[in-house]
Specification:
single chain; alpha+beta; 633 residues; eleven-stranded mixed beta sheet; nine-stranded antiparallel beta sheet
Length: 633
C-alpha cells in the first residue's frame, strides 16, 4: 500500500511533458507550406511547456496553454526546400521531413471535386508523365462534426506525385496544379476537402450561416445535438411533426401507425420496389430477434427511398432523409431493438417510396453481420401531397448545416493558401435564389477564418446535365449557373470556369476533368497570379436594340466569336414577359446579332438556358461562351 501511494505521489510531481508533444495532422512528411506568407505551425505539448519550432533556418517559440495546445508563427519564406520541420519541448523533439515552400491550393466541393484522377478521360496518358516531386496533395478525411475541430479526424499524408499515387488525387485539382506548376516553376501542394452529394450549407461556419434566413434554429440544434443529442432529437421530432400537421390534415390520426401494437392486418402486403404514386405512403414490418441479436443490433439499412422519409423502430425515431438516391443507413441506439418482436415503420413523401432491392434491407449487428428484413411489408397510401419538401434534421448528411466546415475546414485554419477552388452546386440546383446569398457567404466566411481577405476563389460553373430542351422553358440548372456567374462577377478576387461543352447529359459526373482543371488554371493565372490575360470564357455584358435587331456585346472573346458546325449560333432566346422563343443569332466580331428580334414587348435575351443545352458558340481561343440572361436596353 505504501508503495502504491509513493508511486501516485511521484506521478503527481511529474509535469505533463513532451510525451504529449505532437504536430497537427496537416503537418506530415512531404508537406507544402505557402511561400511568402507567415507560416503558422500548431500542435500539442505538455500544459505550459515552452515549444520551439524550426524550419529552413528560422526559429520561433511559444508556450502551450492549459489544455496543451500551442501555435507558433514563423516569418514568411520564399519558395524552396526540402527542409526539416522540427518541434522541441522539454527535451523531446518531433520532426517532419521533406517540407517544401511553394503555393498551396484548397480544393473543395462535392463529388465532381472528389472525382479521382484515375477515372478521368485520358488518365492513362497523364499517369505516364506524373512523376513530379514538386506537386503534392493531401486528401482531408471525411468528417461531419457538430462543433469546430482542432485537428483532422484521422492521420492524413502529404503525397508526392508519381505514377503510383496520381490515381488517388482529385482529377480537377491535379490538372489545375500540373498546369500552374509548369508555368510558375515553384512547388505546388493541393488539399482536397470534398464530400459527394453535399449542399453548400454544410461547408459554411456557424457564425456566418446563422445570420441568414431561418438557419439560426437549425444551427442551434446542431450545437445542442453535440451536447445533448436526446434533447436535440426530441426538438427535431417536434419540428418534423409540426411540419406534417401544417401540410397533411391526416397526420394526427396517422401517428397511431407508429405504435408497435397498432393493428395493420387490414393493410395491403407488398414487396416494395417503387410505388410510382405521388404523395404519402406508410410502411410497416416486423422482425423477431434473439436476446443476443437484440443486444448486438445497432443499425438499420433500408436502401434508397424516394424521397422524404421518417423511420421509427419500436416507436422511436431513428432517422430520416430527403435524397431519392441516398441509401438509408441509420444508426440505432442501444436498447431500441428488443428481444422478440420488433416493429419498423416508415412514412414516405414522394413518388417512389422504397426503391432499393429487398435483399439490401437489413438490421446491422456490431460484428458486421446483418439480419435480413422480410421482403414483404404492410403498406397503406396516405394523403396525395405533391411538390413539398420535408425539412431534414440539420445534422443529417448530406444536407447538414455547418458540420463539414467543422470537421474538414476548421482543422485547416492557420494554413495559408494561394487560392481556393470550389466545385459544387449540383446538390443546391433546386434553390438558386438562396445560392446567390450562400456562395458569397461561404467565400467571405473562409477568407475571414483563414485571415486572407483577398483569397482568390475559383468557381467551376455547373456543366450540362439532364433533360434536353426542345422549347424554351424554366431550368433550375440554368438558374444555379447564373447564381454562380453573378457571384463571381461581383467579386474582384474570383474567377469562373465555364464547362457547358464538356458535360454529359446522361452522367452527373462527366469525365473530362483535364479540360476543367486547365480552365481553372487559366482563371488562376489572371486572378491569383496577376497575369494580364482574360480569366475565362466570352461573357455577355450588354444587350441593346438596334432598329429591328438586338445586339449582344461580349468581352473576353479571344480575338472574336465563332460558331462550330453552323453559320449561326444556337441556344439564343428572346423573352417578352414569361414567354420566350428561340431567335436566329449571327456572329459579328465580338457581338451577336439577333436579326429582327427587337419586336414589341421583348425585354430579355437568354442563352443556353436549359439543364443540358447544346452549344456551338465559342471564343477565338476555344472557350465556350458563358450562358447568360440580360435585360435589353
Amino acid at each position: 500500500m505504501k508503495q502504491t501511494f509513493l508511486l501516485l505521489a511521484l506521478a503527481a510531481c511529474v509535469p505533463a511533458h513532451a510525451a504529449d508533444l505532437g504536430l497537427a495532422r496537416i503537418f506530415s512528411d512531404h508537406a507544402v507550406l505557402q511561400r511568402d506568407q507567415p507560416i503558422a505551425v500548431w500542435g500539442t505539448a505538455g500544459a505550459g511547456g515552452k515549444v520551439t519550432v524550426t524550419l529552413g533556418g528560422r526559429t520561433a517559440s511559444a508556450s502551450a496553454d492549459a489544455q496543451g495546445k500551442w501555435k507558433v508563427q514563423l516569418p514568411p519564406q520564399p519558395a524552396g526546400g526540402p527542409y526539416a520541420l522540427t518541434v522541441a519541448s522539454d527535451g523531446r523533439e518531433v520532426s517532419r521531413a521533406d517540407i517544401l515552400l511553394g503555393d498551396v491550393y484548397l480544393c473543395a466541393g462535392q463529388s465532381n471535386m472528389e472525382f479521382l484522377q484515375r477515372a478521368s478521360t485520358n488518365a492513362i496518358g497523364a499517369t505516364y508523365t506524373a512523376q513530379n516531386d514538386r506537386i503534392r496533395y493531401l486528401n482531408v478525411p471525411r468528417n461531419s462534426a457538430l462543433a469546430p475541430q482542432d485537428d483532422l479526424l484521422a492521420p492524413a499524408a502529404w503525397t508526392p506525385m508519381n505514377a503510383d499515387t496520381i490515381g488517388d488525387a482529385s482529377a480537377v485539382c491535379y490538372y489545375m496544379a500540373r498546369s500552374l506548376q509548369a508555368d510558375y516553376k515553384v512547388p505546388v501542394g493541393f488539399i482536397q476537402a470534398s464530400w459527394g452529394g453535399t449542399t453548400i450549407q454544410g461547408w459554411i461556419g456557424a457564425e456566418s450561416l446563422r445570420t441568414f434566413g431561418d438557419y439560426k434554429t437549425g444551427i442551434d440544434l446542431v450545437a445542442q445535438y453535440g451536447t445533448d443529442p436526446a434533447a436535440a432529437q426530441r426538438a427535431q421530432d417536434a419540428r418534423t411533426e409540426a411540419w406534417w400537421r401544417a401540410h397533411d390534415p391526416a397526420t394526427a390520426a396517422q401517428r397511431a401507425f407508429v405504435a408497435p401494437d397498432f393493428d395493420d392486418s387490414a393493410w395491403e402486403s407488398v414487396t416494395p420496389a417503387g410505388s410510382g404514386v405521388d404523395g404519402v405512403t406508410w410502411y410497416r414490418t416486423t422482425v423477431t430477434l434473439t436476446d443476443a441479436q437484440a443486444r448486438a443490433a445497432n443499425a438499420l439499412h433500408l436502401g434508397p427511398v424516394d424521397t422524404y422519409d421518417t423511420t421509427w423502430v419500436n416507436g422511436q425515431r431513428v432517422g430520416g432523409a430527403g435524397l431519392a438516391w441516398l441509401g438509408r443507413d441509420y444508426a440505432v441506439p442501444a436498447g431500441v431493438f428488443q428481444p422478440g418482436r420488433n416493429v419498423i415503420v416508415m412514412r414516405v413523401l414522394g413518388s417512389g417510396g422504397m426503391t432499393g432491392a429487398p435483399a439490401n434491407r437489413t438490421i446491422g449487428l456490431g460484428d458486421g453481420q446483418a439480419i435480413p428484413l422480410p421482403a414483404a411489408w404492410k403498406v397503406r397510401r396516405g394523403s396525395a401531397l405533391k411538390g413539398l419538401a420535408v425539412p431534414p434534421a440539420p445534422w443529417d448528411m448530406l444536407t447538414s448545416y455547418t458540420t463539414l466546415y467543422n470537421g474538414m475546414i476548421a482543422p485547416l485554419v492557420g494554413y495559408k493558401f494561394k487560392l481556393a477552388a470550389w466545385y459544387q452546386g449540383e446538390a443546391n440546383a433546386d434553390a438558386a435564389d438562396e445560392y446567390r446569398s450562400l456562395l458569397p457567404m461561404l467565400m467571405r466566411d473562409w477568407r475571414q477564418r483563414f485571415g486572407q481577405p483577398a483569397l482568390p476563389f475559383l468557381v467551376v460553373q455547373l456543366t450540362s446535365y439532364g433533360a434536353t430542351a426542345t422549347a424554351p422553358g424554366d431550368s433550375s440548372w440554368a438558374e444555379l449557373r447564373a447564381a454562380q456567374a453573378d457571384t463571381v462577377a461581383h467579386d474582384p478576387h474570383a474567377g469562373l470556369a465555364v464547362t457547358l461543352d464538356v458535360g454529359d447529359r446522361f452522367d452527373i459526373h462527366p469525365t473530362q476533368k483535364t479540360v476543367v482543371g486547365e480552365r481553372l488554371a487559366r482563371a488562376a493565372r489572371a486572378v491569383a497570379y496577376g497575369a494580364k490575360t482574360a480569366p475565362g470564357s466570352p461573357t455577355a455584358v450588354a444587350a441593346a436594340r438596334k432598329v429591328k435587331d438586338i445586339v449582344v456585346t461580349f468581352r473576353d472573346t479571344g480575338g472574336g466569336l465563332k460558331t462550330y458546325s453552323a453559320d449561326r449560333a444556337i441556344g439564343f432566346e428572346v423573352c417578352a414577359g414569361k414567354a420566350c422563343r428561340y431567335a436566329d443569332a449571327r456572329v459579328a466580331g465580338d457581338r451577336i446579332v439577333l436579326p429582327g428580334a427587337a419586336t414589341a414587348g421583348v425585354t430579355r435575351v437568354r442563352y443556353a438556358w436549359a439543364d443540358a443545352p447544346f452549344v456551338n458558340l465559342f471564343g477565338g481561343d476555344g472557350l465556350p461562351a458563358a450562358p447568360f440572361r440580360l435585360e435589353v436596353r
